[in-house]
Amino acid sequence: MIRFFYNMAPNPMKVALFLEESGLDYEPVPIDTRKGEQHSDTFKALNPNAKLPVLTDGETVVFDSNAILLYLADKTGQFLPDASQRGPLLSWLMFIASGLGPFSGQAVHFRNFAPEKPPYAVKRYDFEARRHWQIIEDRLGQGEWMLGDTYTILDMAVWGWAPRLPYMMGDEAIFETYPNIARMLKAIEARPAAARAHALKDRHDWKEEFDEVAMRSLYPQLFAPDPVV
């Protein structure tokens, strides 16, 4: 039995979409990061980095959302392009993992969560996040999906982050800048699997308060000693 350790953040949602699209039987296991459950010894035995998502498949443990997408796609043979497109698939998957996700995460952190908002950090991550999203926008201008006519795990990986663009970038009109992303997002949101993935939020009573417990759980660096400089 596949066990899927998740919350409703962008990276776990990518995997939730695949699981619902594929029809795989799985057990969703909520990990409430605002309560610090990701720092338990039990969870860190699965992912020493204390991040979501994690997937277990029998004795196999996979962490990092894009690694999980690739593992599941290879396991099932679903949502992959033909073999000639394996290079572009891996390239874009790593682009999302190493660039799009991290820069988007830092942009939203410094804009919305950092106790101090240094102008340089806000400007740098806003610029880099927008630059990466423009690359995705341009790519989607070349076809219906990231790999042309084929709906793949790349589109799922983009979808995890895309609905949060207005909040992440502090721009309610941002989809006017990225019409191709908006088109793809609308197409995926219309799929029944996306509705089922969103419905996972109702399976757990998530901590809503962003109090000191949540801050210590999510941003422990705020409570660590200042580095020696």
UniProtKB/TrEMBL annotation:
Signal peptide stretch: none
GO molecular function, one term: transferase activity
Origin superkingdom: Bacteria
Domain GST C-terminal: 82-208
Keywords, alphabetical: Transferase
InterPro entries with a match to the protein in the record: Glutathione-S-Trfase_C-like, Glutathione-S-Trfase_C_sf, Glutathione_S-Trfase, Glutathione_S-Trfase_N, Thioredoxin-like_sf
GST N-terminal domain mapped to chain residues: 1-80
Keyword ATP-binding: no
Keyword Cell inner membrane: no
PANTHER family in the record: DISULFIDE-BOND OXIDOREDUCTASE YFCG, GLUTATHIONE S-TRANSFERASE-RELATED
Name under which the protein is recorded: Glutathione S-transferase family protein
